[in-house]
Amino acid sequence: MNHLLSIEELSKDLIWKLIDHAATLKHERNAGTHEHKPLQDQTWAMIFTKASTRTRVSFEVGIRELGGSVMFLSSNDIQLGRGEPIKDTARVMGRMVHGAIIRTFAQQDVLDFAEYSGIPTINALTDDAHPCQILADLLTIRERLGTWENKKIAFVGDGFNNMSRSWMWAAKQLNFHLAIAAPSECLPTTQYIERLESANVSLHTDPIEAVKDADVINTDVWLSMGQEDQAEKEAQFDNYQVNAELLTHAHPNHIVLHCLPAYRGKEITDEVLEDFADVIFQQAENRLHAQKSILSKLATYKSDSL
Q1: For residue range 263-274, what is the model confidence (pLDDT) as tens digits?
Q2: Neighbours of 38 (CB within 10 A)
């Protein structure tokens, strides 16, 4: 593993190892016993063209706890904001820093940075994928339910955003059933489903059908960052709110996840979010531990081309 670019590129074995290590790091942090510093004497760059709370805080804390130094660069801080090609930025930074964490719009930008920089590159969110969040969510499910194997996970909302896409690839690699509920216009394309081959993914326009007997009910904002002006898209989701009535159809011991930030009263009610606040904010905390696991795994990689 030289980069973390998407869940699609991870094997089942590697996902398990990353989550196992995240659980170990979490235990050590809580016990005050963690002493290993795999990022000692390293400097990592965080390049963000999308605003963030949880991603920025968790990565900055994680890098420092692993012994490294971190610099935060918004698009206004560097020449990307003035149109410099990503491959030129990558070639420069690859000669100065030890790794990069990128939160941006286009998945291709992250792929190009990884190719041209020669340093470990982490996708901290693009329009196509959100791998760090999925690893944190899987850790949360294991802590709460013991395992994700043979569980039913429902995703209610935009069925073709970065979260639902990443969940589909997790379902392909791991042994659980993913049921996606979304308006027909917001379900994955036939071509995308064909890429998943035999993944245990079912698509629904009826949220009740998707949530029926589900162990985990997962949702996200209806409009991803950059889509805030698409009122006509948001209007399609009126029947896709995670609320108390919808949850009556889930497994009796279900949990609710939300990657945050949440728009209470839209994709999730205030009542449901508060009822499941403990698990949702545990999920948010687990970003730190999952990302420390990723960083530890990537700490020793360096391209032979540099």
Answers
A1: 999 999 999 999
A2: 15
Contact in structure between 137 and 165 (CB atoms under 8 Å): no
Q: Whole-angstrom Cα distance, residue 49 to residue 47?
A: 7
pLDDT in tens, 192-241: 999 998 789 999 999 999 999 999 999 999 988 777 778 788 999 999 99
CA neighbor of 156 nearest in space, from 271, 280, 258 = 258
Q: List 204's β-bridge partners, or say none.
A: 181
Q: Is 54 a catalytic residue?
A: no
Q: In the 3-class helix/strand/coil scheme, how is 216-281 assigned residue by residue?
A: EEEECCCCCCCCCCCHHHHHHHCCCCECHHHHCCCCCCCEEEECCCCCECCCECHHHHHHCHHHHH
108's CB contacts (< 8 A; 6+ apart) are: none
Exactly one of 220, 254, 283, 291 is catalytic; name it.
Answer: 220
Which among 98, 251, 287, 289 is annotated as catalytic? 287
130 is catalytic: yes
Which residue among the candidates 259, 283, 289, 291 is catalytic per the annotation? Answer: 259
pLDDT tier at 40, thresholds 50, 70, 90: very high
Q: Is 103 a catalytic residue?
A: yes
Tell me the pairing of strands 43-48 and 69-74.
Answer: parallel
Domains in the chain: ranges and CATH:
7-130+286-298 (3.40.50.1370), 133-284 (3.40.50.1370)
Q: What is the pLDDT of residues 61-78, one digit of tens each?
A: 999 999 999 999 987 787
98 is catalytic: no
Helix (H, G, I), strand (E, B) or coil at 69: strand
Q: Which of 98, 103, 204, 251 is catalytic?
A: 103
SS3 35: coil
Q: Is 204 a catalytic residue?
A: no
